[in-house]
Amino acid sequence: MMNTQETNFSDEQMLGLYRDMLRIRLVEEQIGKDAKAGNIPGPVHLYIGQEAVAVGFCSQLTDSDWIASTHRGHGHYLARGGDSKLLMAEIYGRETGMCKGHGGSMHVADFSKGIIGANGIVGAGISITTGAAWAAQLDGNGAVGVAFFGDGAANQGVLCEALNVAMLWKLPVIFVCENNGFSEFSPSSTVTAGSIVDRAKPYGAAHEAVDGNDLIEVWQCAARAIKRARGGDGPTLVEARTYRQRGHVEAEASFLGSSYRSDEEVELWKARDPIPAFAKRILDAGQATRAELELIEQDIVTEVAEAAEFAEVSPYPDPASQDTNYMFA
Ligand SMILES: Cc1ncc(C[n+]2csc(CCOP(=O)(O)OP(=O)(O)O)c2C)c(N)n1
Hints:
Number of strands: 8
CATH class: Alpha Beta
Helix content: 40-55%
CATH topology: Rossmann fold
Largest sheet: 6 strands, parallel
Order of helices and strands: HHEHHEHEHEEEHEHEHHH
Bound molecules: thiamine diphosphate
CATH architecture: 3-Layer(aba) Sandwich
Number of helices: 11
Distance between the termini: 28 Å
Strand content: 5-15%
Shape: globular
């Protein structure tokens, strides 16, 4: 766990955060290649470009805290310290995956890491996390719940219901909307009225909008929200403004007739990529050398190759095991 200071990160902390983001990126680039090569069963939704949000929050949580994720959940799993071998095996549908290959890319849950579920049902994690936060409050164990969801999910009624009860009962929950600009193939502006962060206002809940591509800004906002939740001061709604660099789903080029965004827009956001920006910050502050950053990258490249190999050689689950209650096995 990081210290609770809001500034003055040590060299070690900065490099740890850099490693966490780069690890998500490189694992997902491998998954993207494998998906395009047709080696992965089912759809794959990549988190590339949004890494600062998962890392900014999850680096401050303990295994007793709860998170719920979405169909775009690999980043949250890895940011919580998830094992890349178990993740890749799960995505490949192999029995060595953390859900024994039954969940696949959209369901990378791991209770031991406090992940109540990634979820293909848009918005579902909002209510599940609110329930977990209520349980934590009743248990008095100081745990918090963090629900990650997209801007599309913010248009579901469940957000209003969850904000209402969370504020009423001062639940230790944080609602993190990752506004990546799109709900499937619809630009956010065509399906979302008003401002997402303002949706906390009628309930009197704390709310903050942050640059979701700036890791330090996200981390500081997360520190405030976690402190509020652990201190019994109730929920926070965070809108982290970021960008989905890849398609909604990796296979979309094969079935979409026309593009729903311009190449210029994508390039503009790639220039604001959170990972090179963070590397620059580290280098400019003299907190590491380029060679040290390259060593970290090399280390992760090796980890990814080993994870992919592990997934490829792992067996498929026996279909007869489909009704195993793997979450509690
Ligand atoms: C309840 C529900 N409605 C619709 C869908 C179909 N669907 C899958 S992903 C998606 C878009 C979600 O957009 P957003 O919440 O912004 O998340 P993002 O994909 O941008 O991460 C939709 C509508 C679904 N899976 N579940």
